[in-house]
Amino acid sequence: MNLPIDLNDAPAWTSRHGSDKDVVVSSRLRFARNISGVPFPLKAEDDVKERVLERVSETLEEWDLQGPFHFVAMDELDSLEKEVIQERRLGSPELTGEALGGLVFGGDESRGFLVNEEDHFRIQALRSGYALAEVREDAQELESALDREFGFASDDEWGYLTSCPTNLGTGMRGSVLLHVPGLIMRDEISRVLKAVANLGLTVRGYYGEGSESQGFYLQLSNQVTLGRSVENLLESLSRVTERIIEKEREARQNLFEGESVEVEDQVHRSFGVLKHARTLGSSEALKCLSRVRLGVDAGLFDGVSLTEIDQLTMTVQPAHLNLSIGERLSSEDRDAYRARVIRKRFEDDEDEETSGSGSTERVETERSDD
Amino acid sequence: MNLPIDLNDAPAWTSRHGSDKDVVVSSRLRFARNISGVPFPLKAEDDVKERVLERVSETLEEWDLQGPFHFVAMDELDSLEKEVIQERRLGSPELTGEALGGLVFGGDESRGFLVNEEDHFRIQALRSGYALAEVREDAQELESALDREFGFASDDEWGYLTSCPTNLGTGMRGSVLLHVPGLIMRDEISRVLKAVANLGLTVRGYYGEGSESQGFYLQLSNQVTLGRSVENLLESLSRVTERIIEKEREARQNLFEGESVEVEDQVHRSFGVLKHARTLGSSEALKCLSRVRLGVDAGLFDGVSLTEIDQLTMTVQPAHLNLSIGERLSSEDRDAYRARVIRKRFEDDEDEETSGSGSTERVETERSDD
Questions:
Q1: What's this model's pTM, rounded to 2 decimal places?
Q2: Is B369 in CB contact (< 8 Å) with chain A?
């Protein structure tokens, strides 16, 4: 394996608790940037892209940003590793589909940049919880360092130039991954989403663009990048995020006051499925983990933290499971293995009991058909 | 409460292990008998029935059958107690609906007789597991004692006389309660049932006549009572029962060999529901207990016995729950209480772990909305 990542654990940044973790799973921000005077990737010949990759690689060797940065060229990775990159939110399908693409990321995977995706650079930062200001700062620092090194293409009128006009200007996209079981279960989500659309923001499900919302997760991000400042764009996004956090908390309170038996039943049954199932598809696992997440926040499970749920949700995705086994499993085998990993994690926990260390438990990677 | 029964426990006879308990939950046999020279209940005036009840009560006082017998007059019981009698398979709706009905039963509820139901006497015996010969002996002993005391109506040509012609002759109905998840899950049950119908036997679901088969349970009994001897009728019933036992075992083996992940998944998920649900209807509880029963037999749960599953299946029926609380609960409260009783029972058990005493754990009877 060429990916310097421990697949049995979620990225280290997921365990650093941001604020408002009950509703905000994580925050992310990226800047789209291109090197001045060099053809943009979508129009560039291979030798141009190769040269960009080389320059990045050389730069990293002499760079003194805090902490080590890994450089991974896409052509060194097999298809499973590429899928894992997507599952960990490190890279997009556009990046992994690009033979001359590259990925740079810090040890905890919280900062890095994509090379030769749609733009020369997609500079990104990720944090657990609600931390838009922090990810902005993290990404900004990296952006400045790269700008000093490479010099970004920009225009007095348009701002930063990008391959796709939807990124022109700031080239910034901020996003928050929200967990909103209250709003969804109480059927209040459509009203909220309508308001969001009018504010130049977009909403997607857990698995990214185009996918349905699954398991009570929503990703909220700015649609507009042009004609407004980064501050102003983040302010809109923050205002809406904070409003949703507030509404979601109200909805949860109403949920547990009004229909407590039904809701608790759903939550505990989901925990029962996670603890006992012998085969578990991605979608059902996501839904159950999402319900249990609601229960953890409501204090129904003492031994499990929101962070652990989020980490498990990430590490039981298909490519993570395949790669931790070391081969591409059939979907039957994968679902059985997923059930085993999750069961193992919850084995010693029980509702009403306190236990649980802070980390995702290691699971042996040998297959078995128990 | 006028019913001398401990409702938190299943009847004592359920914990005396009969043979072939993997497939046969219990065996039952009853004789329909009437007192010679006294109008049969369906045609009798109230004073006649009162006199029969009195004579039974007097007889019991001076009787020296092994062990104590309880006498309960139906007009002393409230509606909940009457429902419990049915749920424990002690009496029929026809009995509990009869103001002048009476019920006599031994301490462990394994032997007794109904007074003034459709016939003056319905003498019955129950045992755990496959024990048709034994229940016949038990019932026969009681029948002889009653015959000596009261003198039964019979006819040289017709045999014992009964209110309904379907009971004429032997007045005997033998039945076995079968657990056949293998045959049902493998879709082999209809073939078996077709054969059964041709042999003068009938099949019903768990909850008795007219009800659908629920949770993999079937009750098999002789339809014919006339023109053949008790021995001969029981021989037919036994032959079919033994054939079904054999077929069911084959089916289970094939089930676990052929589709083990799916079947184990179903079994463990059902266990998960029992352990975690906060509200559980009768029907779902029955289905889940039934699947777990299959798992217990397959060795998937070390800490639980077949007997315990059978006992729990009996004691979480609606009237049992209501009466153990001491009031008629709303169905919402009852389902929540059922979930709590079952959860409590399985609290300390876990798959793959050995534990478990032999008895159904006592559950506090106070209500709570935890």
A1: 0.86
A2: yes
